[in-house]
Design goal:
The complex is a heterodimer of chains A (286) and B (230). Helices cover 75% and strands 3% of the residues of chain A. Chain A contains 13 helices and two strands, in the order ααααββααααααααα. Chain B has 230 residues and is α/β, with parallel strands linked by helices. The chains are: A mainly alpha (286), B alpha/beta (230). Chain A: The chain crosses the membrane at residues 6-24, 31-52, 58-81, 93-112, 132-156, 185-206, 212-229, 236-253, 259-276.
């Protein structure tokens, strides 16, 4: 069980970083970005293609892929900020569903429907706990998720850039009337979350199911983790991601329950949504 | 200092125009009261000047610079500030954070807080926890902190007790005395005219009076007929 839980931490770190990205997007640019992991997947696939077919060194291909993931996300942010600036969160989020499907289809057309031959960026064990090996990937993703969450919190609360982002997220029109440039700031958030998603996916993908659909659908467990923090709190998003990853890893160790790990994120989402509605149900009952 | 010139502005919302061919000039150091019945188009006019809604026709200029097609951000950078209707605070930010958004320096924040002792006492409170009057003070203080050349104020008194509003009005006067041109939209017509040098009355989207605020205040029948669009 412990071995499974620790093995699940790598995926947990991945979920946590993606959940932080989703939370930032929801808080700062009013979008639930369903294409969050799909842009990362596409950047990683291009990196693999550059490495395998063009002969670029793995590190260089990975850098190009990460920049591409950030660029794709920035382009989507620019489109939404330009044409859907005044639209509600539902409409803006619906556009990202279309982009999710577009990127999956595009990856099938360009790269085929088989998993890609990723070269691992990190490989090998980091240390052991009671005979259970913890991999370098696990350590890096967990540390990365915590560092990114703390860094984002510091950025939002301690810098004038963060202050402007928070103002923009609360009253976009008022912020613009005060001279805060909404579009460049929003595009910067899109680009940063795109870069982070691609980075973390490129670290974890070699050791996970890495077909286009599996990587794109990482947005589901990431959403479950972000939902724990109500798409507002970065700390709970990280905790949610790590716990979900560990729970999936632990469940996978029990033969009779192993299939449940695929449904676990959905169960968490349903459970959290029901829990969040308890007050309304109670109010109606009264 | 330059003046802000509005020439032949028409604003359309939905089926038809809500402001038709309106023109006036805001001079530095002067307060202009913009009054009229509900639905006359006062808010739409302010929004067209600051770029919240586009103008269908006409132009807005600051000095010789035409800003009609400028973004809201570009207009703000030219010194135009717009206090929107309602209490346009950022509720999750503290009083200090609200002020830091527009005050470029720390001394300016302290200078503005000195004008509003009530806010100084609650400088670290989230603005969501302040009273309606205090929230409106934050909005006013935030606008002052930016030192705009032109300030559009839309229904500052909305939802406030008259006694709170009368506490805020001298701040507007003080700001004008420092050289800002102010366009004041207000439901408390007499209070607004009392602090203004110029007045514009709009009714059904058209200007029905343009002239001295004191003349309008002294002749209630003129105000009444202007409200009725006569």
């Amino acid at each position: 069980m412990l071995q499974g839980a620790l093995a699940g931490l790598a995926a947990g770190g991945l979920y946590a970083v993606l959940a932080v990205c989703l939370t930032l997007m929801s808080r700062l640019v009013r979008v639930v970005n369903f294409a969050q992991s799909a842009t990362g997947m596409f950047g990683c696939y291009v990196a693999v293609w550059l490495s395998v077919h063009v002969g670029l060194p793995t590190w260089a291909a990975t850098v190009v892929g990460i920049v591409l993931g950030g660029g794709l996300s920035a382009l989507l942010g620019w489109i939404i900020s330009t044409w859907l600036a005044e639209a509600d969160i539902g409409t803006r989020s619906a556009v990202t569903v279309a982009v999710l499907l577009l990127l999956i289809s595009l990856s099938f057309i360009l790269f085929g429907n088989k998993p890609q031959p990723f070269h691992p960026i990190l490989d090998g064990p980091a240390f052991s706990v009671n005979g259970v090996v913890v991999s370098q990937v696990t350590v890096v993703t967990v540390v990365l998720s915590v560092v990114i969450a703390l860094g984002c919190r510091a950025l939002l609360t301690k810098t004038s850039f963060g202050l402007e982002l928070r103002a923009l997220s609360e009253r976009p029109t008022t912020a613009e009337l005060m001279g805060i440039p909404a579009k460049p700031l929003a595009v910067a958030v899109w680009a940063a979350t795109g870069l982070l998603s691609t980075l973390v996916i490129s670290i974890v993908a070699p050791s996970q199911s890495n077909d286009a659909t599996s990587l794109s659908m990482l947005v589901v467990p990431a959403s479950a983790a972000a939902l724990l923090g109500g798409f507002r709190r970065l700390d709970l998003a990280v905790v949610g991601g790590l716990v979900l990853g560990m729970a999936q890893g632990a469940v996978a160790q029990v033969d009779s329950l192993s299939v449940v790990r695929y449904f676990l994120p959905f169960l968490v989402i349903v459970g959290l949504l029901l829990w969040s509605q308890r007050k309304e149900v109670w109010d109606v009952a009264r | 200092m330059n003046a802000l010139q509005v020439q032949g502005i028409t604003v359309t919302r939905g089926a038809g125009p809500v402001i038709r061919d309106v023109g006036f000039t805001l001079e530095p150091g002067r307060i202009t009261a913009l009054v009229g019945p509900n639905g006359a188009g006062k808010t739409s006019l302010l929004e067209a000047i600051s770029g919240v809604v586009p103008a269908a026709r006409g132009s807005v200029r600051i000095g010789s610079t035409e800003i009609t097609k400028h973004s809201r951000v570009a207009r703000a950078k030219l010194g135009l500030a717009h206090i929107e209707q309602g209490r346009a605070v950022f509720p999750g930010l503290t009083v200090l954070e609200n002020l830091k958004l527009t005050a470029r320096t720390w001394p300016r924040v302290e200078e503005v807080l000195a004008l509003f002792p009530e806010l100084d006492k609650r400088r670290n409170s989230p603005t969501a926890l302040l009273s309606g009057g205090e929230q409106q003070m934050v909005v006013l203080a935030r606008a002052f902190a930016a030192r705009p050349k032109f300030l559009l104020i839309d229904e500052m008194s909305l939802g406030l007790a008259p006694v709170v509003f009368t506490r805020l009005l001298p701040m507007v006067t003080r700001f004008a005395s420092e050289g800002a041109a102010i366009l004041l939209v207000e439901q408390f017509t007499h209070l607004a005219l009392g602090v203004s040098q110029d007045a514009i009355v709009v009714s059904s989207g058209r200007v029905t009076y343009q002239g001295s605020a004191q003349d309008l205040l002294a002749a209630p029948e003129t105000l009444h007929s202007a409200y009725l669009g006569e």
